[in-house]
């Protein structure tokens, strides 16, 4: 059974930082492109960042320069370091694993709330 379990969300003031983690099980983690997505209330889910098997990272413009995606294949974990958080970063953050052959899995999400 495949599981992706996110953690690290919480309440933070503007300008603060959070590090999200996503631990995978039931897959060969190193074979998957890992990604972080977010969904704010009343909005569609959007891409935040992805990191391929070979280590190529893509970060969406809205968080570029403030966020870093990384992975530890030995720990089956992908991270999202977010700095200089703003109220518009408030959302549920989801982890996704996607394989070249099409298999795709999602985590249950972790809430990030930025408030002043």
Structural write-up:
The structure is a single chain. With about 120 residues, this protein is mostly beta strands. About 0% of the residues lie in helices and about 55% in strands. The chain is built from no helices and eleven strands. The strands form two sheets. Strands 2, 4, 5, 6, 9, 10 and 11 form a seven-stranded mixed beta sheet that branches. The protein is globular. The protein starts with a strand and ends with a strand.
What is this structure, in a nutshell?
The protein has 116 residues and is mainly β.
Outline the secondary-structure elements.
Elements: E1 3-7, E2 10-12, E3 18-25, E4 32-39, E5 46-51, E6 57-59, E7 67-72, E8 77-82, E9 91-99, E10 104-106, E11 110-114
Parallel strand pairs: 2-11
Antiparallel strand pairs: 1-3, 3-8, 4-5, 4-9, 5-6, 7-8, 9-10, 9-11
